[in-house]
Amino acid sequence: MSIAAPELAPGLGTAPRRRRERFDAIRAVVAKDLTAVRRSKAVVLPMLLVPVLLLIVLPLVIGLMASNSPAVSVEDFLGRLPAGVADPITSLPREEQMVVLINGYLLAPLFLIVPLMISAVLAADAFAGEKERKTLESLLHLPMPDRDLFLAKLITAFLPALAVSWIGFLCFATVANTVAWPVMHRLFLPTKLWMVMILWVAPAVAALGLGVMVRVSARARTAQEANQLGGAVILPLIFLAMGQATGLLLVDLPVAFAIGAGLWALALWLIARGARRFTRDSLAAKV
Amino acid sequence: MAWQPSAGELAIETRGLTRTFPSGRAVDDLTFDVRRGEVLALLGPNGAGKTTTIRMLNGVLAPDAGTARVAGLDPVAAGDEVRRRTGVLTENAGLDERLTARENLAFAARIRGLPTGVAAERAGVLLERFGMAADADRQVTGFSTGQRKRVALARALLHDPEVLFLDEPTSGLDPAATRDVVAHIGALASEHGRTVILCTHFLGEAGKLADRMAVLHHGRLEAFGTPEDLAADLWSGLAADLDLGTTAGPDVRARIERVAGVHEVHPTVDGAALLVRDREVLPEVVAALVQAGVRVYASTPRPPTLEDVYFELEARRAAPPPAPHEGAAA
Ligand SMILES: Nc1ncnc2c1ncn2[C@@H]1O[C@H](COP(=O)(O)OP(=O)(O)O)[C@@H](O)[C@H]1O
Ligand SMILES: [Mg+2]
After folding, report:
1. Cα distance between residue A71 and residue A63, in whole Å
2. pLDDT value at position A251?
3. Residue A155 and residue A153: Cα distance in Å, rounded?
4. B116-141 residue pLDDT tens
5. Lowest CB count within 10 Å: A5, A31, B27, B299, which one?
6. Nearest ligand to residue A287 Cα
7. Distance linking the first and last C-alpha atoms of chain A
8. If phi over 0 gives left and psi between -120 and 50 gives alpha, with beta otherwise, what is residue B8?
């Protein structure tokens, strides 16, 4: 019952592992974590429920309401906004205004909850959950550089957050366009603003959720504790974003770009700090 | 033999290994050597520093001071290279509950870069060997502690490691499971010269399995060597049991004590326990008793067990000198 362990050639003690092998190990961690997550309902359910509510049910209800009462005026509301900001909407035919305002603009910031929540929940599971399940120590005893392990954990949280956001947006655009068809007679989504949200701001928000949870998970003992701590940091951000929603997202694209850039900078700073602290020694000292 | 043995006679060397936590010094100036193919028991009560020592040897924790070499490599500088040559059974098995036994093994194999086919075959063989074949595709959630330990043991052996660290392999197991795991470890230890470090506070299993023992207390190495060597340092003389069919009364004990070379006599249920200068004293004792009309059924020298040694060390620690024996490297 012997097998040759690869690359145990004598004298090659410190030879770096081949790049492909390191890549395989990272993929193994990501695949393992995602398999495990898929099997725990407590994690999967909210991750499916929230996007379904926000990106399918909500636009459906709003779209149907707007299409069935096209005469409702949004001019009062639009009139209170700074001149110029509301132009793209006020220039539309009246019956199109409400559906474009809500599904085209007002839901955009709400949509960001999806990448934020998913990356945060998965990061809590990947970082603090490993401690909680007492699997961290045996993981640390495997031959994998700290950096690669950290990277794998980031990918575990980031990729699904992006995937769900993008698939969710496709569903959202389909639903919103479909229910608005009787009024619009054209596809109005995605708008340019939505494209910026999807491709630039949503990934930034996912990264920010990740950065916060990496930080918070270093202290938390359980994934739930990390979620609570993280929620205390992230929720105010959400409310701030929603409070600013109208003023913020009806503004022009350069501002949306700049906000995305700011979020990216903050997220990358948090992640870089997390990476520096993510060493075997400091992890093992907390096991 | 699958792994390429690294050069030299020693599998592990430590020199002044030390690690302090905010709560205090966990490992203090540890120096010892482990020979290739040897089973070393790291003995000590909870909190003695056994787990911390293993973590430092495997490059998971960095020492504050001192150095170590494992399989000829420095765990601080070449941690991953050391970890590719070692296998660890951690105190709590550390399996992912949401994966099956087989998936847990496959994951470790992928991290270790084993080819998928080889890994699957070997996982099958090991799970079979540890009696887990029937449960291999069940999620770990429902497993007993004993089943988990066996799966984790299989995982630690997947890559045929040169050095095997076993941290409290029988803690939390019932007697039957304990006997089972100890038997498996015994078989592993004798297998093609693998070095095994066995951390435990159960003396029985250490006595059965280990060639040498290192006794840790508050992070310090209190004794190191074979039970026989340590016994020779602790006691002058040899213990022996006399079977007299019944407890030795005062007059019988007095008669024994008069024989030259007898140091101590204590009554036992079926006779007496003696401490004598050496083997040659025993026939004299028997002769003296026979002469006095006492029936002697057996006289058995009893070399000290690891347990005797350990408890003697503990007793001397409680009631200090004669100068406690300092452990030394081989
Ligand atoms: N990560 C840690 N942080 C703080 N103290 C620790 C840590 N790990 C171990 N210790 C302390 O170091 C000592 C040795 O612990 P350990 O090596 O786990 O002993 P053992 O495995 O022999 O039971 C104990 O007093 C323990 O409380
Ligand atoms: Mg321990």
Report:
1. 14
2. 59
3. 5
4. 999 999 999 999 989 999 999 999 99
5. A31
6. 1
7. 34
8. left
Contact A205, A265 (CB under 8 A): no
Q: Return all residues near B109 (Cβ < 8 A) that are at least 6 apart.
A: B116, B119, B122, B123, B158, B159
CB-defined contacts A:B, below 8 A = 127
Residue B95 three-state SS: coil
Q: Confidence class of residue A12 from pLDDT cuts 50, 70 and 90?
A: very low
Residues A208, A267 contacting (CB under 8 angstroms) = yes
Contact yes or no for B275/B263 (Cβ under 8 A): yes
ipTM of the complex: 0.85
> Which residue of A2, A39, A141 is in closest CB contact with B90?
A141
- Residue written as token pair 């660890």: B88
* The pair of three-digit structure tokens given for residue B110, joined into one six-digit string: 């992928």
Calculate the alpha carbon distances from A155 to A1, A133, A270 in Å.
Answer: 36, 20, 15
Identify the residue among B23, B110, B127 best suited for mutation to test binding to A, counting A beta carbons within 10 A and taking the highest. B110
Beta-carbon separation of B84 and A145 below 8 A: no
pLDDT tens sequence across A129-141: 999 999 999 999 9
Nearest CA-CA distance, residue B222 and chain A, Å = 25
* Residue ranges of B 216-275 with Cβ closer than 8 A to chain A: none
Atom nearest to B44 CA in ligand 1: 22
Lining ligand 1 with CB less than 6 A are A 285; B 21, 23, 26, 44, 46-52
B79 CB within 8 Å of a chain A CB: yes
> Which chain A residue's Cα is nearest to B63?
A281
Put simply, whether A140 touches B (Cβ < 8 Å) is: yes
Query: For chain A, which residues make up each domain, given as ranges?
Result: 15-285
CA distance A230 to A223: 10
